[in-house]
């Protein structure tokens, strides 16, 4: 019993330390170069994961697969049983208009495969509820650094906005104008990456790394991810 008590105490201490080093207050201010999860590992996701009830089990996993650097990447594997995966990070209620006017790059590195930007906002002029919708941009299938999506006119929204029915393509500036109409203030609650291949071919895999959003670039690393906690890393789920 004493041995079990020591083991539990050790795990509790480790959890306490992780609680101190994890960015629990990362959402207190909008995400930026200064307020940034610069590295995410299995042992310390640094705020990355998927806690949404309707997306349970869909979070990607950090693996040793290389995309650009040698320390690993965030991997999404889709199947008929799990046709979609997505991982997010809190944005600290960054005003969507500020994201657009900052002109900071929205890019990520990827392997070949299907991957999308996901920007979850509230406060938009949807005419109902809390004004929630998701803005989506799909990267080209090929491997490499994605084009700067901040300047793209291929964004679309999951809900109707004034003058922009859902699925209508446009720029982020177009969506700011529509979402903030009638005195609304749209804010970004979460941003992330998803993978959802066409329904006809749901099975796929894509790895992403160096995700850059509003000046914050996150590197996903599996190398040495256990750190001082060793095998304890498996008690910190990514979703």
Could you characterize what this model shows?
Helix content is 15%, strand content 28%. It has 239 residues and is of the alpha+beta class. A hairpin with a 2-residue loop joins strand 11 and strand 12 (216-220). The longest helix is centred in the N-terminal third of the chain and has 20 residues, at 2-21. The protein is globular, with a radius of gyration of 19 Å.
What's the structural blueprint in terms of helices and strands?
Blueprint: H1 2-21, E1 39-40, E2 61-63, E3 73-78, E4 85-95, H2 96-102, E5 107-110, E6 116-122, E7 133-138, E8 144-145, E9 156-157, H3 172-179, E10 187-195, E11 204-213, E12 216-220
Parallel strand pairs: 1-12
Antiparallel strand pairs: 2-3, 3-11, 4-10, 5-8, 5-11, 6-7, 6-10, 7-9, 11-12
Number of strands: 12
Q: What is the end-to-end distance? A: 32 Å
Shape: globular
Average pLDDT works out at 86
**Alpha-carbon Rg, integer:** 19 Å
List keywords for this structure.
single chain; 239 residues; alpha+beta; seven-stranded mixed beta sheet; five-stranded antiparallel beta sheet; 28% strand; disordered N terminus; disordered C terminus; signal
In short:
This protein is α+β, with helices and mostly antiparallel strands and 239 residues long. It has helices at 2-21, 96-102, 172-179; strands at 39-40, 61-63, 73-78, 85-95, 107-110, 116-122, 133-138, 144-145, 156-157, 187-195, 204-213, 216-220. Residues 1-27 and 225-239 have low confidence and may be disordered.
């Amino acid at each position: 019993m004493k041995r079990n008590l020591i083991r539990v105490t050790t795990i509790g201490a480790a959890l306490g330390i992780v609680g101190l080093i994890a960015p629990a207050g990362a959402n207190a201010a909008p995400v930026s170069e200064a307020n940034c999860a610069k590295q995410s590992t299995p042992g310390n996701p640094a705020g990355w994961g998927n806690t949404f009830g309707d997306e349970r089990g869909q979070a990607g996993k950090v693996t040793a697969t290389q995309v650009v650097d040698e320390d690993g990447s965030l991997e999404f594997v889709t199947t008929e049983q799990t046709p979609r995966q997505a991982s997010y990070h809190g944005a600290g209620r960054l005003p969507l208009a500020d994201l657009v006017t900052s002109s900071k790059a929205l890019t990520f590195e990827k392997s070949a495969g299907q991957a999308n930007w996901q920007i979850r906002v509230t406060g938009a002029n949807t005419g109902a509820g809390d004004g929630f919708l998701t803005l989506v941009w799909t990267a080209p299938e090929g491997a490499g650094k994605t084009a700067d999506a901040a300047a793209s006119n291929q964004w679309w929204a999951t809900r109707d906005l004034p003058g922009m029915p859902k699925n209508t393509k446009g720029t982020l500036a177009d969506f700011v104008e529509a979402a903030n109409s009638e005195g609304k203030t749209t804010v970004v609650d979460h941003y992330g990456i998803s993978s959802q291949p066409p329904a006809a071919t749901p099975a796929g895999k894509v790895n992403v790394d160096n995700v850059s959003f509003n000046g914050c670039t996150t590197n996903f690393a599996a190398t040495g991810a256990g750190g001082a906690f060793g095998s304890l890393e498996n008690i910190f789920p990514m979703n």
